[in-house]
């Protein structure tokens, strides 16, 4: 006997007539809830890369350098230590970032353009704010999409 049949039997025995109706409705609703939803069409690679790139910039803006570091390619992480990445990334305060465009030239290679606003402190103590479009390269290797810094290309 299945679990749903056992529940229905218990409901018939234990609940008065009005309660049975409510119980039957709950049982029917629970059956609907157990049917998996049809999944939407899978995201195309541009959407996937845009989301991952945005998550990297969100981590940088929060100062979560470890999360941003984990999105660098395994090859890059083998030569760039987390401490060095943290020190270099911490020199700038990232104020805003938004993926503008993703163009993929191959199945495993995408160029991403990101609008960023940032602030940095000059040696004389003055803080300068600016904005620009950053260019990034993302490569699908080792089972996922990874950020490859320009100086690693």
How is the topology of this model organized?
Layout: H1 3-14, H2 17-33, H3 45-62, H4 65-70, H5 74-79, H6 82-89, E1 92-106, E2 109-121, E3 127-141, E4 144-148
Antiparallel strand pairs: 1-2, 2-3, 3-4
Report on this model:
With 153 residues, the protein is of the alpha+beta class. It is 44% helix and 31% strand. It has 6 helices and 4 strands. The chain has a 4-stranded antiparallel β-sheet, covered by helices on one side. α1 (3-14) packs antiparallel against α2. The longest helix has 18 residues, at 45-62. It is globular and about 45 Å long.
Write a concise keyword list for the protein shown above:
153 residues, four-stranded antiparallel beta sheet
Can you give the helix content as a percent range? 40-55%
Helix-and-strand structural type: alpha+beta
Instruction: Spell out the helices and strands N to C.
Output: HHHHHHEEEE
Give the overall shape, derived from the CA principal axes.
globular
Low-pLDDT runs of 5+ residues are: 7-11, 14-40
Strand content: 25-35%
Give the strand line-up of the largest sheet. 1-2-3-4
Q: Look at the structure and give the mean pLDDT.
A: 80
Question: What is Rg?
Answer: 26 Å
How far apart are the first and last residues' alpha carbons, in Å?
A: 62 Å
Largest sheet: 4 strands, antiparallel
Please give the count of helices. Answer: 6
